[in-house]
Amino acid sequence: MYLLSLCGNAAVAVIVCTNCSLHTPVYFFLANLAVLEICYSSVIAPLALANLLYGRKATISLAGCGTQMFFFVFLGGADCILLAVMAFDRYEVEKHKEKDAPPTLRRKQEGMKLASFLDSAKEMAEASCLPLGCAELPVSSGLLQILHPYEGSMM
């Protein structure tokens, strides 16, 4: 699985860099995400694979553990920041598209925004009750099932 992840992410990065038609901001961020994922998955997986293949517990020094933890946290944080930048880029693109959209499309977009907000609020309410052992929340998702019919099939 680790090698498949490395090959897939390397292929994405190489294809985006070599194909001139993919030199757009979305694909630039995607290539950077692929390279970052290669680095992130390479922090812990090789030692875990060595332990699995050789059947023995390979020890790691305190300095090695600290270094591994540093890179794991640093690359994980960089991954989160890159995803936030990608989300902001998509937001800006959609915001500019929205200004030029016809009124009927704008109403649909507003409906989807409302449905997305309600669905997020429902999920957050359910998730905030999980550690406390709350009973099932009486939130009806009928409206959300109509607007987003695939939500139930993913769970």
TrEMBL record:
Keywords: Cell membrane, G-protein coupled receptor, Membrane, Olfaction, Receptor, Sensory transduction, Transducer, Transmembrane, Transmembrane helix. It holds the Pfam family 7tm_1. The keyword Transmembrane applies. Gene3D superfamilies: Rhodopsin 7-helix transmembrane proteins. The chain crosses the membrane at residues 29-54, 66-88. PROSITE patterns: G_PROTEIN_RECEP_F1_2. One of its GO terms (cellular component) is plasma membrane. Residues 8-91 form the G-protein coupled receptors family 1 profile domain. GO terms for biological process: sensory perception of smell. Its main location: membrane. It is found in: Cell membrane. GO terms for molecular function: G protein-coupled receptor activity. It is a multi-pass membrane protein. InterPro entries: GPCR_Rhodpsn, GPCR_Rhodpsn_7TM, Olfactory_GPCR. PANTHER family: OLFACTORY RECEPTOR (PTHR26452). This is G-protein coupled receptors family 1 profile domain-containing protein. It comes from Alligator mississippiensis.
